[in-house]
Amino acid sequence: MLSRLTRPQALAVCALPVVALLATAVLAPLPFSVAQPGLTADVLGENRGEPVITVKGAPTHETSGQLRMTTIEATGPDASVHLGDVLGGWFDTDRAVMPRDAVYPSGDDVQEIERYNEEQMRESQDTATTAALDHLNLDPADVEVDLRLEDVGGPSAGLLFSLGIIDKLAAGDLTGGKVVAGTGTITPGGKVGPVGGVPLKTQAARRDGATVFLVPKAECSDARAELPKGLRLIPVTTLDGAVDALDALRSGKGEVPAC
After folding, report:
1. Is 9 a member of any domain?
2. pLDDT tens digits for 95-141?
3. Under a CB-based contact definition with an 8 Å cutoff, are residues 153 and 118 in contact?
4. Rounded Cα gap, residues 257 and 255, in angstroms
5. DSSP readout, 188-256?
6. Domain total in the chain
7. CA dist., res. 50 & res. 128, Å (int)
8. Parent domain of 132
9. What are the b/e assignments for 48-66, b being 16+ CB within 10 Å?
């Protein structure tokens, strides 16, 4: 024999599974990472009391201003990110929700990821050195460049490393006394590649005093989306183009590209 339920009672009984499902969805871990603006570092300066760039075998020049590489900080691969974190990240301009595989492409093992990022950084330093010396027409057999930057991984500082080496070795002054920041991978031939996380990196750059930001041209629209006030974007596709743009900006002669 079936008992008769009133309409409110029936609705209440039917709602119980829905509430349970919603609670499960809210509490279930999701395959995302939440990122925020990270540290920046002046490649023309020091890191932990040691010069970031050391050159042997060629004369160097005094520099003014700063060339700041930029980073993002993301929740770890083993961190639990829930629906509330994702929704909050979508509405907070200081945070971004990114697929975990885009942030940690090498897997979920923390040590494996650290090794991967360290290898990416070493390769980036090698290619940055090759690109810079090629730009200056210097023989790598005669010039030794040592790059040292602790607690930073990945390839996205390549462009700034190359510019820092050029600023140290070439006559003149790339920054013109300005605080210039940026991001971008570099190839041995001097091509600049996209990196991701650009809106957060522009915020980190402006927070640390930058007024100019070099951005891979392919990521101009991302950089413009949440551009901090007082930060000028300069799109670049090659190392030569980045040097030319900074020369034009410093001297006031020539065209400075804009996004």
Report:
1. no
2. 777 666 666 665 557 777 778 778 888 999 999 999 999 999 999 99
3. yes
4. 6
5. TT-BEE--S-HHHHHHHHHHTT-SEEEEEGGGHHHHHHTPPTT-EEEEESBHHHHHHHHHHHHHS-SPP
6. 1
7. 19
8. 36-74+110-251
9. eeeebbebeeeeeeebebb
Which residues make Cβ contacts (< 8 Å) with residue 206, sequence separation at least 6? Answer: 228, 229, 230, 231
| 210 in Cβ contact with 181 (< 8 Å) | yes
Q: Compute CA distances 184 → 4, 87, 114, 201, 232, whole Å.
A: 68, 29, 20, 11, 16
**Is 3 a domain residue?**
no
pTM metric for this prediction: 0.81
Look-up of token digits 């090629």: 134
Find the CATH number of the domain harbouring 52.
3.30.230.10
pLDDT value at position 16?
45
38 C-beta neighbours (distance < 10 Å), count: 16
Domain-located, residue 182? yes
Structure tokens at 231: 């930060």
The sign one gets for the Cα dihedral 4, 8, 9, 12 is positive
Residue 105 lies in a domain: no
